[in-house]
Write the structure tokens for this entry.
Amino acid sequence: MTTTASPSRPNNSDDFDPITAEVIRSALDNITTEMSLVLLRTSGSPVLTESKDFSTVVFDAELNQIGSSGYILLHMSASRLGVEAVAKTRVPHDVQAGDAFICNDPHTSGALHQGDVGIVMPAFHGDKLVGWTFANAHLMDIGGSAISGFAPEARDTYSEALRFPGTRVARNAVLDPEWVGFMRNNVRVPVSFISDLRSLVAACNVGGERMGRLIEEYGEATLKKYIHYNIELTEKALRARIARLPDGNYQTFDYVEYDGFEDNKLNPIFCEMRVDGEKLKFKFSGCPQVAAFINAGRAAVEGSLIAPIMCQFAPDIPFNQGFWNCLEIDLGEPGSIINPVVPAPVTSGHASTGMRAGRMVQEALSAACAASDDEELRSRVSAQSSGAVTLGIWFGNDNKGKPSMFMPFGMAVGIGGPGQTIGDGQDCYGMQSTLAIKWADVEVQELDSPVLMLWRKILANAGGAGAMRGGLAIDEAFTLYGADNFVGMNFQSGAEIPARGFAGGMPGGNGKAWLIRHSEVNKLLAEGTLPSSPELLKGEVDLSLRGCQTNIAFSKGDVFRGIAGGGGGLGDPFLRDPAHIEQDLIDGAISSIAAQQLYGAVLCAGSATQVDADATWAQRNTLRAALVPSASVDLQSLATDTAHEGIRCSQGNWACAHCEKPLASSDTNWTVATLSRERDLAKVFAAAETYTRRREQNPVTLLEHYCPACAACLSVQVNLDQEGTPVYHLKN
């Protein structure tokens, strides 16, 4: 399937007042902001009020995306597809003011997964349909086997959760009582579910009222004219930005993890980004869809794709329909893991295959920016964001008989950001497509659910080593407190395949979960001690816990601990300033072992944090000279403005960005001209006290490429066994 947005209407800029254009653009965004405030002030669910897992969007009658607010970039795609699905089947004869339609089916109505529930409402001015409002939120439950919308062991979508393909659930903005009764009978936490549905309807209703007032203020014709003009301005700005990239094909791949049926299978996906003048053309492919919840629906892929474009490539351009008009997206043949069809299960498609799609696009954009001779674009290069979600969701009755569902967002969104040209990656950056999601305060979580948070802290060594280090991740643990027995699911999207570094940077650490049975947590609490590390808990680690598993018993005295993944590093770690390494040691961002193993650091005698800069540079040169005998090694002289770079394309050739040694013509694979070294990822990480799960079959390896002239590391690829490095092809 190929998605190509229709071009915006050409306008004569002399006919428009730029101040009025900006006022109207801001007014539309303000409408969605007010919709968000309605959600925040009427919902009682911590997932909305604290974690803010929701978004609000408005559209015109032509289905152009014209204003947005909220916290989830993934919803920019889900909203388009949800509104399109409703409009296609309802307009013009089956839609009235006050109607509300529920969309939560990734297969038919654009949802990310069934747990993300969208409400679509028409906006009328008088008797005329003038637009649409959309509000989407993750609800605590949607029925079926999918606790809070995730079904790790479902074999098909019928086994996951209830699916609504744009079903009318309200008239005159009031939920249908019979439908409410049906849902009360089919979800685990009906009070929370119905309350949040009413909040979504209220938000959309307010958005429609505010759109009507805007029409009254400016007139329908004038407002429509300026909406098209603002779309054109965004499209024009983004097309101009794209045109500064070198034309060519940028190809990469990734693997989607799944171990739910104990087969520990890795599922390959591929991305080709073609820069073609003023357009970005994406073509995806992947293995056949699988009988597991990792298949990604269209919204999950397109929403993940738009995130790095918005965050990395064009954060300064106002977002609206103009963005989509600059893109062509081909999801490949139906029936693949990245373009699934019914009955493929999809409840984790956005957090599994979708996140991997976003990582591939991020890498392709970095490759295109790195190949440019435009310094501004070169400054937008980064490593990969992690996207390694660790999430346990638990359900049961507390000791007072009240049903409760606990969804700790910390380990799910406390994910390290990518190393970037302006500095190290942000700690607990989050998934790039869900950057504004937060986790609830400890006090709020303990008030809402019968749990006790034991610790929540930054995890050392999680960020990928580099001249610019990847961001660190979260480490948190909890136990039941006020309940005896819960049941839940565990989900890890990144336990084995880490976020890649860029330009010689190392990958970030992976996520991991532990279930500690029969711990001494209650004994310690009775003694007045709040345990802050797993060593104090004792107990037995449940070795049967898989990365994707459901129906897990969680009892009083058990402790669940989870860590998230770290961002990839940017640039050769041996070019990192020793002063920055010393500060990392002081801050606890890295351990002394990691400093020595990954950065070649030499510590001063008797100190665990003080770095001997001269000895460090000398040791680095010695190590690289032994690895690359042909090189003239003086790494300290390279650690200037090019520390975060790998290769450059100049005068039709690839060359080392540090010493300018030509490597190959721009239409060939430059890596064949480098000295290569392949190492076992698990061994490298174990030596540096960084987490990953070892694969016994098809182990994950690091394929490193070094400049033959200066010995700088130019690229570190994450592969399975002896698989090749993706090649970035450029036109001459």
The longest strand covers residues 265-276. The radius of gyration is 26 Å. The first helix runs from residue 18 to 42. The chain has 18 helices and 28 strands.
